[in-house]
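Dear all,

This email documents one entry for the complex benchmark we are building for the journal club exercise. For each entry we list the sequence lines for every component of the assembly. Then comes the predicted three-dimensional structure of the complex as a token string, followed by one or two observations. Please use this as the template for your own entries, and keep the labels exactly as they appear.
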Amino acid sequence: MTMTMNKTLPILDVKNVSKSFTLHNIDGRTVTALEDASFVVHPGEHVSLAGSSGAGKSTLLRLIYRTYSITAGSVSFRLANDEWVDIAQLSDAEVIALRGREIGYVSQFLHAQPRRSVIDLVARAGVSRGMSTADAHEQAGYSLARLGISRTLWDVHTSVLSGGEKQRVNIAAGLISPPRLLLLDEPVSALDPENRERAIEVIADLSDQGVAVLAVFHDLDAISRLASRIILMSRGSVVTDGPVDQVLPQLTPGDVQP
Amino acid sequence: MGRTEMTLEATVNSSPTTIAELVGHRTTETFALLDEESKREIRRALLQAVCIPGYQVPFGSREMPVARGWGSGGLQVTLACVGADDAVKVIDQGDDEGVNAVNLRRLVTMSTGIDETTEVDEATLIQSRHRIPEDDMNENHILILQVPVPEPLRGIERDIRELARMHAEADYSRMWVSLYEDKVRNGVITQSTGYPCLVASRYIVATTPIPRWDIPRLHQSKFLTLFGAGREKRVYAIPPYTDVEPLTFEDVPFEVESADGATCRLCGSSDSFLVEMPGKQESWSCSDTAWCRRQRNT
Amino acid sequence: MTSIHVPSPIIQVRNLGKYYGNFDPAMIDRTGPEHGTARDHVTASIVAAWGVNFDVAAGEALGIVGESGSGKSTVLRCIAGDVAASTGDVRLAPFEDGNVNILDLDPSARRQLRINTLSVVYQDPAEGLALGVTAGGNIADPLTAAGWRNFGAIRDRARELLARTEVPLDRMDDIVRNFSGGMRQRVQIARALANKPPILLLDEPTTGLDASVASGVLDLIRQLLEELQVAAIVVSHDFGVIEMLTERCLVMQHGRVVEDALTDQLLEDPHHPYSQKLVAAART
């Protein structure tokens, strides 16, 4: 593990985290998806998770978000008041309170949403993070415009959007009034080059705003442009953790496959 | 209530208090048709009814020499209340000379020897079907109404236990819904006779079958009103000086019946409850015949 | 305890239990998931639900999933007061500041709670509506129960609720029996919301509706839950419904809670064998 340049306190401290699944209905076998992973993330850092399919990248994101329960180890998160909490030990209600405002998760899919207009959906995400309705609407419009969602689509229901449009709406909602830690799971996978470019610019801005980002991308270009550090994973373990210029040359195209 | 007490006292006094009296009593004809036990039972029910205004009190309705549904409930109440000093007036649709009124009045006077009258002033007990006399009544009067259907919620709920629960909890929202539906469908609340009223802000009663015209007379009345339903075996009461509010919405005023410009063809009155003469359209007369007669004579 | 602010519970359920038949303390250990049945073979009693605990906060919807006979509807009906619980402690913050176990109240007081504290939306609209009464009249019922006596105001409120639940206003004065299943369900929801209750219980609210109709009703419920910030319990056998409406849920089997989890965690990482079986079945 290399020393980070960052002098500030980390926001996330993952220690010896493991995850295994017990499949009761398939002869009770146990499958280990992650073993003994440790790393830290600082505010303003953009950390890319790399590794081949099945390396445990998405598993790691889901553990931090607590979509997966944590089998062993600790996932310490520093609250805005500098108190450290172990996400592995939090009650479900505390996790819900932490989600959205403190920790965000943007997947490659737009989550099932009720019939609601595009702008409403994005603005609502802002309101849920404490923005006023008016501010949220203004900011939502700004974000959508930046992501290339034309104004004519703002008041349609999300259900009629294309896959790429949905993904951009998802990014807009995930990034409005951004949480302090953002988990991105292949957020630009369905975008054409032009819109992908826009999305990457928006994501790059997060680092300037001090948001800690932990991301999985499936292309080297995005990683090279966004990441300040890369964690390379293989078969459920962290293999390398270092600055982009050191780790990037080691990556093969297989390490960024979805 | 003074008169009620007097009446009850008078009846109690007529009961035997010694063995000798009892023997003598047994050999004489029973006062007011009913035996003393029956009258006591009905009076007990009536006292309970007066104590809980609007609450339907069950009672052991007796076989009467009139068929149930022909005023047997009202008759039993009258017979239970009547004392030797009373004078009785009986009307049917406001008419002292209706066949049923005449029969009932005859039964009361013959079994008690008390006076009969058509004048409200002279009467102490007024048994009625369908009307409250137009004349002012006071603390000396007991109005006894013959009731065919005592249950105001009958049209809404059939289950007796559920009805009891609704009354017990004053759970009357379905009654309000029926008024709402009536207003929505017909533009007005169409219920005419037996309009549902809230008594003493607690129980809803059926005012069957008096017309709307008479409803305001029940509110804060000086007289006691007793309701008797023989077939349904229920009595209930509105004591003097009790609030009686016809159920209606704040913005849908309760209105009494009126026929524009109609006057009684006999006495010329326009401020009494008028009914159309049978078979003659646009020909009206007072429903209260005694009152009408007096209007003509003064 | 952490300094993370967690909203205080509106509904608090402790050791809720319901059995049918005679009680024998030993029957609790003879029934449940390990025995594969809720029916005790000794007493023939049925332990429909036992040892159920949970909290629900304002603005939160808690899901209860399970197959029919798992006890999920029993739990909901015990809280609603439709079924008398055998044991337990249920407190509602809006009622007496949560100082009273509502299971101790007499039936009359329980019914009072249904006027403006707690509403239920049933799978079968006939349970929550008077089918022979108009849509507006069905809404007038809880309003008049709460003391509304102004016809115009009742009409206005009914119109507002029907518009919000997307019932065409020109059908306000039609009797509900003439409505489609989806429209009846919307009227039932409108009625349930009439007095702005802080607690809403939904029992299989979209089961039995055609898929497209169900998704519209589901959308509406989700929007209303977000908008009104009520504390809600959603009972369903359908993971789609639970996923759409809830953030936390319980899994019930043979009258017991076998797992409670964040809803996304239950769907992605179910722990109990029964939960895994249910999720696997839902995914195929």
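Observations: The longest strand of chain B covers residues 87-92. Chain B has two domains: 36-246, 260-298.
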